[in-house]
Specification:
heterodimer; A: 233 residues; alpha/beta; Rossmann fold; four-stranded antiparallel beta sheet; 11 strands; B: 411 residues; alpha+beta; 2 domains; six-stranded mixed beta barrel; two-stranded antiparallel sheet; 13 helices
């Protein structure tokens, strides 16, 4: 059974005089533990589809089931709870909380969202700090570490709650290519170790090659689904 | 909860200058209110003490209608000895009463044999009077602190005006109840400092001498001055005595006696009320300062952290937690401002008391003793903290209602 089933997803934005059709009848399925990327030019609908999958936005039409839940029907509070339980987020600008240390940033969702016991919190954070190679950086504040390190911390924060799915919107956009590869490599490693599904959007052609399943978007329409190696479905 | 406090405190430290300015504003407000409240409160307490302990007593009992005509000191509205006996029995049976003193008041002429002027005289029973209004003796600037038969204590203004000294013989002439005039010689045994309020410039003679001047077989009583064991129970006791005396009626069924607290007898009560009103206004100003400054700083905090709010909302933080985060921030700001304000206010009050500032009130010189009551400290602190929390509500609700997607897009 797929982790995500989307059918006929449409999203319209109403500006003053014009209706912008950001997504037009998009259908797809994503399996558990897959490494997926949505690609396409600017304005193709990548961020919109990620926002909808992330329960941050609702489609104008269509159906979406994630982890056997009809997420479209969820209210504001239920959406927040669902995100806290099943989803992890990695942002383009890292979005770490500046007043918390690296350790506390990773700890934040465990305390404020999931209420995990202190001992288990410590174990999970220590394990993830090691996994993202930030072992000795836990005491530092976000302004004391580099962009690549920030994104590694963001990966650890996204994974610390053991989510079924991690969404990353342009996670490498603010990184140099070497660091970008390293972050994508880390995400893949974590997928392999934890079995977490990763979905990321990008317009970086070099990074696109790292995805195992690729959804191509153009003008809000899904134009192709490809498996690694260019095999079209 | 500990983590919410940690985040709130760190965010306050993050914007040091703004936090410092807002906390300073709250501190200044708290200091001002504490100093004002303690100084005016102390002034009020001193003045009430002066008024009640040197002249009026805590409450007085008169024959019905006497107070309405008190300016003319009407002899026909005195209590007869039988009525006074009833009052004595009732007061002795009232456990809250510490002491009481009967007075026979009359207006007369005071003469040093070369000059004559008018005077109001209180005929008193010295032992009872000095116990009931203990500060009366402290007003005796010259002479002995007792009063015997044939002696008179006169106010200083009268002594200066008529050049009368201790030991001089003077004459008091008064019209008695049936219209005839009588006079009696007295020796000046004491000079009294003036006091603010009614009776502050009266003379004092022994009650039996007063009865003799007024040609009474047995002394009638104009008023009974009462001192309570606990001044704070004044209204309760007035009510109690009122209901006890309600049963004493004349042939027409009208009440024979009336009870008045010092508040109903002294114009200083209006000043005391004005002080209370001013204190309320100062507190309202403090509330406004705290409300505006905290609200302003919290609105700024929310505006500056929209993306952060979007992030924590996106990763699943419930709206109530986001709300609490900002309310706790306002609470911490209020607490910091209050604690510093309490400390500085306490130090300033201590300095005022150590300096020993003296000031004149009417003809009296008073020592300013600012007393900071724990209840005032607690009230001001609680008001500031509650207002700080209330001021954070609107920005906090705004933050918690933000859609994560909009907040994340904010630049």
């Amino acid at each position: 059974m797929p982790l995500i089933t989307a059918s006929s997803i449409s999203k319209n934005y109403q500006t003053e005089d014009v209706t912008v059709r950001a997504l037009q009848g998009v259908d797809f399925e994503i399996e558990t533990a897959s490494f997926v990327s949505f690609v396409g030019p600017s304005g193709s609908g990548k961020t919109t589809i990620l926002n909808i999958i992330g329960c941050l936005d609702k489609p104008s039409a269509g159906n979406l089931r994630i982890a056997d839940t009809d997420v479209i029907k969820l209210g504001r509070k239920e959406s927040a709870s669902f995100r806290g339980k099943h989803l992890g987020f990695i942002f383009q600008d890292f979005n770490l909380i500046p007043v918390l240390t690296v350790y506390e940033n990773i700890e934040y969702p465990l305390i404020m969202v999931q209420n995990i016991a202190p001992q288990e919190r410590k174990e999970r954070i220590t394990r993830l700090l090691a996994a993202v190679d930030m072992n000795n950086q836990g005491h530092k504040y976000p302004h004391q570490i580099s962009g690549g390190q920030k994104q590694r911390v963001a990966v650890a924060r996204a994974l610390v709650t053991n989510p079924a799915l991690v969404l990353a919107d342009e996670p490498t956009a603010n990184l140099d290519s070497q660091t970008a590869y390293a972050v994508i490599g880390l995400m893949k490693k974590m997928r392999d170790e934890l079995g977490t599904t990763f979905i990321f959007s990008t317009h970086d052609t070099k990074i696109v090659g790292e995805a195992e399943v690729l959804f191509r978007l153009e003008d809000g329409k899904l134009t192709a689904k490809e498996r690694k190696g260019g095999i079209k479905e | 909860m500990r983590n919410l406090f940690k985040i709130a405190i760190r965010n306050l430290i993050r914007y040091k200058r703004r936090t410092l300015l807002t906390a300073s504003l709250i501190t200044i407000g708290v200091v001002f209110v504490l100093v004002f409240t303690s100084v005016t409160g102390s002034f009020k307490t001193i003045m009430i003490g002066e008024v009640t302990d040197s002249m009026l007593g805590h409450l007085q009992i008169h024959r019905k209608g006497y107070v309405a005509s008190i300016d003319s000191l009407p002899l026909n509205l005195n209590m007869n000895p039988k009525a006074y006996t009833k009052i004595v029995e009732m007061l002795k049976a009232t456990t809250e009463v510490e002491s009481f003193s009967p007075r026979l008041k009359f207006g007369g002429m005071f003469s040093n044999f070369t000059e004559t002027t008018s005077i109001r005289i209180n005929g008193i029973s010295p032992d009872h009077e000095f116990h009931t209004v203990p500060l009366l003796t402290s007003r005796i600037s010259e002479g002995k602190k007792t009063l015997s038969r044939g002696e008179i204590m006169i106010p200083i203004l009268l002594a200066k005006g008529l050049k009368v000294k201790l030991g001089d013989t003077v004459v008091i002439v008064a019209t008695n109840a049936d219209g005839s005039v009588n006079g009696k010689q007295f020796i000046v045994s004491g000079i009294l400092e003036s006091a603010t309020g009614p009776g502050g410039r009266d003379g004092y003679v022994h009650i039996e001498d007063a009865a003799e001047v007024l040609r009474m077989q047995e002394a009638e009583i104009s008023e009974v001055v009462v001192r309570l064991k606990d001044f704070n129970r004044l209204h309760e006791v007035v009510q109690k005595l009122d209901s006890k005396l309600a049963g004493e009626v004349n042939k027409e069924g009208r009440p024979l006696f009336e009870v008045h607290s010092w508040e109903q007898l002294s114009p200083f009560f209006n000043i005391a009320q004005m002080i209370d009103v001013m204190t309320y206004f100062i507190k309202i100003m403090l509330i406004a300062i705290v409300l505006i400054s905290i609200m302003n700083v919290m609105i700024m905090a929310v505006y500056e952290r929209i993306r952060e709010i979007g992030t924590i909302a996106a990763i699943g933080t419930l709206p109530a937690r986001i709300r609490a985060m900002f309310i706790i921030e306002g609470f911490c700001l209020g607490v910091v401002g209050t604690i510093i304000g309490d400390i500085i206010g306490g130090i300033i009050i201590l300095i005022i008391n150590l300096t020993g500032i003296r000031y004149n009130f009417g003809r009296q010189e008073l020592l300013l003793q600012a007393n900071l009551l724990p209840s005032d400290l607690l009230t001001v602190s609680v008001i500031v903290i509650v207002v700080a929390v209330a001021a954070s509500f609107q920005p906090a609700i705004k933050a918690s209602k933000m859609e994560p997607i909009d907040a994340l897009r904010h630049v």
